[in-house]
């Protein structure tokens, strides 16, 4: 049986013939199909977070014992759709909650969460080029990120409030005719019965 000295010598001899971790180079990682950079090239064009002064509104709308409630949410939720959905799931609404996000008074996202059911819409598809919440929305919807030369259009569940008396065609008209995303959200809130509560939140904004 080989002694400890022979075993150590054998390991040393084999180590000379193969690169150790410290000796491995980029070619070694490439040969294994690995990327030592660990960066996802697909995320290189992901838009930067909206700054606080670019975020107009992040709010939750729900009814508690039949009373309409509008609650301001943390601004950082305007950059993270998944976190916004989770926040809405925690709202004490009788029949779920609605999230409204307005960015730069130019684009808005609406999310309706009822248990496991999530519906959402984006007022301007081109906004996916510029804002994380819009990019998250088109990804969630399975819609391709449009090119800059593509036509701007609302995308998603434009009929998400059809049961509340706001049909798809009217929602589409609001998106296309409004030049101010906050005004558009106030109009939608009014049609849903949250007009007074939402207008108070908007009026308090420092814009």
- Strand-and-helix sequence, N→C? HHEEHEEEHEHHH
- The amount of beta strand, in percent, is 15-25%
* Main beta-sheet annotation: 6 strands, antiparallel
Rg for CA atoms: 26 Å
The structural domain count equals 1
Oligomer: single chain
Proportion in helices: 25-40%
Q: How many DSSP H or I helices?
A: 7
Please state how the strands of the largest beta sheet are arranged side by side.
2-1-3-4-5-6
- Structural class label: alpha+beta
**Poorly predicted residue ranges:** 7-12, 14-24, 29-34, 36-41
Coarse shape? globular
Question: What is the number of beta strands?
Answer: 6
User: What would the average pLDDT be, to the nearest integer?
Assistant: 84
SSE arrangement:
Blueprint: H1 4-16, H2 26-31, E1 55-64, E2 67-72, H3 81-89, E3 97-103, E4 107-114, E5 117-122, H4 132-141, E6 155-156, H5 168-177, H6 181-191, H7 195-203
Helix pairs in contact: 6-7
Summed up, what is this model?
With 207 residues, the protein is of the alpha+beta class. The chain has helices at 4-16, 26-31, 81-89, 132-141, 168-177, 181-191, 195-203, and strands at 55-64, 67-72, 97-103, 107-114, 117-122, 155-156. Residues 1-49 are annotated as: Disordered.
């Amino acid at each position: 049986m080989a002694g400890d000295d022979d075993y150590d010598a054998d390991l040393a001899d084999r180590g000379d013939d193969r690169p150790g971790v410290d000796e491995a180079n980029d070619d070694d990682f490439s040969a294994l199909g690995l990327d030592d950079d660990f960066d996802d090239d697909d995320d290189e064009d992901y838009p930067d977070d909206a700054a606080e002064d670019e975020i107009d509104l992040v709010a939750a709308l729900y009814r508690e014992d039949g009373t309409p409630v509008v609650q301001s949410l943390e601004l950082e939720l305007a950059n993270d759709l998944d976190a916004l959905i989770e926040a809405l799931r925690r709202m004490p609404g009788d029949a779920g909650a609605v999230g409204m996000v307005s960015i730069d008074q130019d684009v808005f996202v609406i999310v309706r969460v009822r248990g496991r059911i999530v519906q959402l819409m984006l007022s301007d598809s081109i906004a996916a080029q510029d804002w994380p919440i819009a990019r998250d929305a088109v990804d969630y919807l399975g819609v391709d990120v449009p090119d800059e030369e593509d036509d701007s259009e609302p995308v998603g569940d434009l009929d998400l409030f059809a049961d509340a008396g706001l049909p798809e065609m009217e929602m589409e008209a609001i998106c296309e005719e409004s030049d101010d995303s906050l005004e558009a959200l106030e109009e939608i809130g009014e049609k849903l019965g949250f007009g007074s509560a939402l207008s108070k939140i908007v009026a308090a904004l420092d814009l």
